Write the structure tokens for this entry.
Amino acid sequence: MLRRAATTAMTVLLLAPISAQADTVPADGDAVLPGNQGVIDLGRASTGQVITWPATFRLTCFGLSHAPPGSTITLEESGAIVPDGGSVSVTAATIGPVPASWTAPGEGCPSPAPTLTSSTPSLVTMTMPPTAGLASFTVMWSRSGATGLTGPSAMTIEVEVVTNTPPVLHLPVNQTAEATSAAGAAVSWTASASDAEDVPPPTPSCSPAAGSTFPLGTTTVTCAVSDTGALEDTGSFTVTVVDTTAPVLATMPDLALTTGSPDGATLDYGQPAYVEAVDPTPSVVCLPASGATIPLGGTTVTCTAMDASGNDSTMSFQATVTYVPPVVWSALWGEPVAVSGGTFVANPGRTIPIKVEIFANGVEQTRGAGSLAIATCGGTAIGTLALEWDARRWNAHLASGRLAGPGCYVATALLDGHAAGSFRIELRGDATPAGSDGGPKATR
């Protein structure tokens, strides 16, 4: 089964016992495990499969003959034993330069013995033979660039060659998805496998599984597939969930404000509603803010919503302030009230006919809720009387019995709650009503 052998000299070097006490350069097939692994078992591989395996080397102090400081050791393939139908290729490796602190020739090695690892590995690339069975690849390296060395630099790699070929995973490229909620996004994909022997081909398994909800950020999905011969293939890809969608602000209606102040009016509006899938509490800021005073004319209110990912959107509406001068209310009283001095003197038991014309900014008002409010001259409310419109003026009848006895009273005409004018009533008699101040009589 052997196709090619090393030279006789190298075979002797590989198999003969070490006779000289000098530094050694053993090959190591597993740099992770302690010690030098001269024989490596790579498990199973299919016929014709190509496998590359690294070999490292350690210059190890031994005996009394040592590599000279400053020297660089080059290791190159000097022979190989390969199975029939297989092949091997080997790259070179180097060790050094040997440091000045290395043990001098003629001196014994300290304990533990110092070592110097190759700066680069030697890559052994093997093609498996076409027939099944145990394939053993033995590689030997020659050393140059330094004297004072002994022992072999060789390694054996064993592989169980099977006729079954491993399945091949077919994975999607790295995925990017837009978040749909604070939890992230549900992401689906298709992973498949092909296999030369298995029909139907095996089904891969992935973690997290397709359709899972992935959080914001990048998650690695690992997949594996095994065939009926227990050969497998593994792979991975990433799923990145991003939030690039800004909150959406609901539109706000324009505001039309009126004011009697030349300084403007106070804004009053609620927080605009928003729609945001990922961030439950985006910041919403409107300027000018509700409660601020804006001048006469038009002002643009701009609202900005920003989520935790920095996405923002704006919405604006207009607030228009119109200046409306204050209304000046007045009343014109008819007989018998319209007497000199604006005071009507009545005797107990008298009913006073009320006749009044009400004006707003000089314009007579013929509609609305008219009333006559009665109070003592001291400000104590007595009651109200409805005023009725008769196509000429507002009318009512005030019975003196509604008053609280002799004394001073004030009757005020109101329209829709606006005071238009008043007059005094002096009810004769001995008693003075509660709250009467007995002060001067008011005019209309």
